[in-house]
Design goal:
The chain is of the alpha+beta class and 702 residues long. The chain has 5 domains: 2-143, Four Helix Bundle (Hemerythrin (Met), subunit A), CATH 1.20.120.160; 160-303, Histidine kinase CheA-like, P2 response regulator-binding domain (Alpha-Beta Plaits); 319-375, Helix Hairpins (Orthogonal Bundle); 378-557, Histidine kinase-like ATPase, C-terminal domain (Heat Shock Protein 90, 2-Layer Sandwich), CATH 3.30.565.10; 562-699, CheA-289, Domain 4 (OB fold (Dihydrolipoamide Acetyltransferase, E2P), Beta Barrel). The protein is 45% helix and 20% strand.
């Protein structure tokens, strides 16, 4: 059972990877309004691969659709993009996007163990119609084979016998997949590929009018498509063309001979293995020379290259990387326990100290390596947003472009998988509520007629900052405040600052109104974005200028497993502050403290004033320093908030393993009080890890 699951996992992974490649190709091609020949070959290869792997997994509907798209691009490949007229190109791009969406949704069903959609007739009809348009035929011919008008079926041997007598003794019977449709066109494509290497006078085929007469599909369904050759060598050369052709179920060879001799017949060749073997040949060998020998040589060289490339990359299940991270975390804790053991207090052990330093160095390296294994670029997630903008541009008839910055920035794999939805939500908001509805409105505001959304990522060393910037209308403070008051989130008697009004957009329930477009800002489920990012240990902030646009900033940690922290004590309690949030530690006296009636205690640091939060008072601890002279001020910064935290003393820097708090503790919304998790110290005690940004918000009322 395990191996079956592994094969399914590989199928899902490879298909999704191919679909991502395909989407990138089509998005670029749509901008250029044409597919290059390389693009066409690549799409043909992708569909051929999806077809083969889906057939192997017995996903018949996916196989059929992949066959159809492959056939479509076979025509384009043979005739170049000139065969697709300007008016048909938008339909071609839309069709490929539709197929990407179809495959994605079906692969999701496979992953969720849900039944696949069996009703693909309308989709097939769309593809058939486009093929007919490209070939310059009447669309009615593009209907599935079952809908073709009935014609009198010819007797099985009738057409073949005369052909054999006319000097074409070497026969090849091709049988197509049941229900694949358009057998006449498939047969004609096969004839076209054979014409590349075999003179028309050297072979014949029945039914002879496959190109013009769709009714011949029924004859082909009943008795197969017959190819007859003068020379046996030509028939042998035709077999690779047959096996690499779309929807071929099997083929049989036969010969017209005197009754005394026994007709030689090869066993039927199942389609999937034949296609699988022929795939490298079909891709590597030029269509003009699909002879068996050259195909085999091409297949061999292609396989050799593929094998060499695969050796440099290994696919590893994410659960194994999770396990590795957990083990490395335990090693870090155990190393700390050994080197900080109370049994060593007061002992001067030079060799032990030297070994301990070496062990620390190695555990640091081990941690870095295990983290780097999990790091993947955000480019995959970013590229998907091109599709969102493209679809919404068409749907809303609102020209806009997406600019990607820093897409090679690397983040933990689990975080990359989780940030897709929040980013997609913000991109949709920018398109729906940010970018102006008409180009005239933008021109009147002195802007470029085409709206721009910038999606950027940058690595600060401790966290990744992702920004979604649009140059749209911006947020209308008055409209947002009125709506917040109506929904009971805000009070009509309070004066709110610009930043506080923007924060209403992230409030749960703000977007419950049925009419979201009644103001020129946003709010469609942005609390979902906030919640999703906070689950990753990150935070969301919004800035906006009316008429200029809006910026959403998402800050997320590079990884959630291990971090460098500074241990500080407050009375008998120990807290861990992430090193990356610490600007410096300061010693001050009571005379340096300014008492402000509205902000409480303030201290001046480098020509700026910062509020002081006393950890003992905030967490309501029983013991700890009360006089400024006795303790130390930690100057902390996170995002756009900067302040000083008053603690008793610094205990030193420590690499800590972040442990998430139990769910029953999180039920009390403890993260909103500046607590991000906990860690085990070397002596076995527990230290609370502080969330610098949320602690400030909690201390200053949000």
């Amino acid at each position: 059972m395990g191996s079956g699951n592994e094969i399914l996992d590989m199928y899902i992974y490879e298909t999704n990877t191919l679909l991502e490649q395909l989407e990138t190709i089509v998005l670029e091609a749509e901008k250029a309004n044409t597919f290059s020949q390389d693009n066409v070959n690549e799409i043909f290869r992708i569909m051929h691969t999806i077809k083969g792997s889906s057939a192997m997994m017995e996903f018949d509907t996916l196989t059929t659709i992949a066959h159809r798209i492959e056939d479509l691009f076979f025509i384009i490949r043979e005739n170049t993009m000139s065969v697709v007229s300007e008016e048909n190109r938008p339909a071609l791009f839309d069709l490929v996007f539709q197929s990407i969406d179809y495959f994605r949704s079906e692969v999701d069903k496979v992953e969720a163990n849900e039944p696949l959609d069996k009703d693909i007739d309308s989709f097939l009809s769309n593809i058939n119609t486009l093929i007919a348009k490209i070939k310059g035929e009447e669309p009615v011919q593009a209907a599935p084979a079952a809908a073709a008008p009935p014609s009198a079926p010819a007797p099985a041997a009738a057409p073949a016998a005369p052909a054999g007598e006319d000097g074409f003794p070497y026969g090849l019977r091709v049988i197509f997949d049941e229900g694949c449709g358009m057998e006449n066109l498939r047969s004609f494509m096969l004839v076209t590929s054979i014409r590349d290497f075999c003179a028309e006078s050297d072979f014949s085929f029945e039914p002879a009018d496959v190109e013009q007469n769709p009714a011949t599909s029924e004859v082909i369904v009943e008795q197969g498509f017959l190819l007859m050759f003068k020379n046996e060598a030509d028939r042998t050369s035709a077999i690779p063309s047959v096996t690499s052709s779309g929807s071929v179920k099997e083929y049989q060879t036969f010969e017209y001979a005197a009754p005394a001799s026994q007709p030689e017949e090869e066993p039927a060749v199942p389609a999937a293995p034949a296609e699988t073997q022929a795939a490298p040949a079909a891709q590597a060998a030029a269509p003009a020379a699909p002879r068996a020998s050259s195909s085999a040589a091409a297949a061999g060289s292609n396989n050799a290259n593929t094998q060499h490339a695969k050796e440099t990359l290994v696919s590893v299940n994410l659960s194994k990387l999770d396990l590795l991270s957990a083990v490395v975390g335990e090693i870090v804790i155990t190393e700390s326990m050994v080197t900080s053991s109370p049994d060593l207090k007061g002992l001067n052990l030079d060799s032990f100290s030297k070994s301990a330093r070496q062990l620390r160095k190695l555990t640091d390296e081990l941690q870095d390596v295990s983290m780097s294994l999990r790091m993947v670029p955000v480019s995959g997630t970013f590229q998907k947003m091109n599709r969102i903008v493209r679809d919404m541009t068409k749907k809303l008839n609102r020209p806009a472009k997406l600019t990607l910055v820093g897409e090679n920035t690397e983040v933990d794999k689990t975080i990359v998988d989780s940030i897709g939805d929040p980013i997609m939500h913000m991109i949709r908001n920018s398109m729906d509520h940010g970018i102006e509805e008409t180009q005239e409105e933008r021109i009147a505001a002195g802007k470029d007629p085409v709206g721009e959304i910038i999606l950027s990522a940058r690595d600060t060393g401790s966290e990744v900052i992702i920004e979604i910037i649009d140059d749209g209308r911006g947020v209308n403070d008055d409209a947002v405040l009125k709506k917040a008051i109506r929904q009971g989130i805000a009070s009509p008697d309070v004066e709110y600052s610009h930043r506080e009004i923007l924060n209403f957009l992230l409030a749960p329930g703000f977007s419950t109104n049925t009419q979201v477009t009644e103001f020129s800002g946003r709010g469609v489920g942005m609390d979902v974005v906030k919640r999703g990012v906070e689950e990753l240990g990150g935070n969301v902030s919004i800035t906006s200028e009316l008429g200029k646009g809006m910026t959403t900033t998402i800050r997320i940690p590079l990884t959630m497993a291990i971090m460098d922290g500074m241990e500080v004590s407050v009375g008998g309690s120990i807290f861990t502050i992430p090193i990356n949030n610490i600007r410096s530690s300061l010693k001050h006296t009571s005379k340096d403290i300014i008492h402000d009636s509205s902000s409480g205690e303030i201290v001046k640091v480098q020509d700026s004033f910062y509020p002081i939060i006393r950890a003992r008072d905030f967490f309501r601890l029983d013991d700890g320093c009360t006089e400024i002279e006795d303790g130390i001020l930690m100057w902390l910064e996170s995002g756009d908030c900067s302040y000083c935290l008053f603690v008793d003393e610094l205990l030193g820097e420590q690499q800590v393993v972040v442990k998430q708090l139990p769910s029953y503790v999180n039920n009390y919304n403890i993260k909103n009080y500046g607590i991000n998790g906990c860690t085990l110290l070397g002596d076995g005690s527990i230290s609370i890890i502080l969330d610098v940004a949320n602690l400030y918000k909690a201390a200053h009322g949000g």
